[in-house]
From TrEMBL:
<protein>
    <submittedName>
        <fullName>Uncharacterized protein</fullName>
    </submittedName>
</protein>
<keyword id="KW-1133">Transmembrane helix</keyword>
<keyword id="KW-0812">Transmembrane</keyword>
<keyword id="KW-0472">Membrane</keyword>
<feature type="transmembrane region" description="Helical">
    <location>
        <begin position="63"/>
        <end position="81"/>
    </location>
</feature>
<feature type="transmembrane region" description="Helical">
    <location>
        <begin position="20"/>
        <end position="43"/>
    </location>
</feature>
C-alpha cells in the first residue's frame, strides 16, 4: 500500500523533492520484492503465516510471486520515468504567449 501511495505521488505531482520521493519508491520496492520472494519461497510453510491448522489451504507454487514482482518493477519504472519527465519539464523553457 505504501509503495502504491509513493508511486502515485511521484506520477501525479511535481514536487521539489522528487529525489526523495524516488528514494522512498526504491526502498519500498525493495521491501515489497523481498516480501514477495519470501512468500514465494515459503509457500508450503503455512505455520509461518497462520496459527493452527489450515485445512482449506493446499500448498503449491503458482504465478502469484512472479506477478507480484513484475507489478513492483512496473510501478518502480513508472515512478522513475515520471521523475525523469518532471525534471525535463522543469528544465525546459515555457513558451509564453503575449
Amino acid at each position: 500500500m505504501a509503495l502504491h501511495a509513493c508511486v502515485a505521488w511521484a506520477v501525479l505531482t511535481r514536487t521539489a523533492r522528487q529525489a526523495l520521493t524516488l528514494a522512498a519508491v526504491a526502498v519500498l520496492s525493495l521491501v515489497a520484492v523481498g516480501s514477495a520472494i519470501l512468500l514465494t519461497l515459503t509457500y508450503d510453510d503455512a505455520s509461518a503465516l497462520f496459527s493452527g491448522a489450515v485445512p482449506a489451504v493446499v500448498p503449491r507454487p503458482g504465478l502469484g510471486g512472479i506477478v507480484a514482482v513484475l507489478a513492483i518493477l512496473i510501478s518502480a519504472g513508472a515512478a522513475a520515468v515520471s521523475g525523469a519527465g518532471h525534471r525535463a519539464m522543469a528544465v525546459a523553457p515555457t513558451n509564453a504567449r503575449p
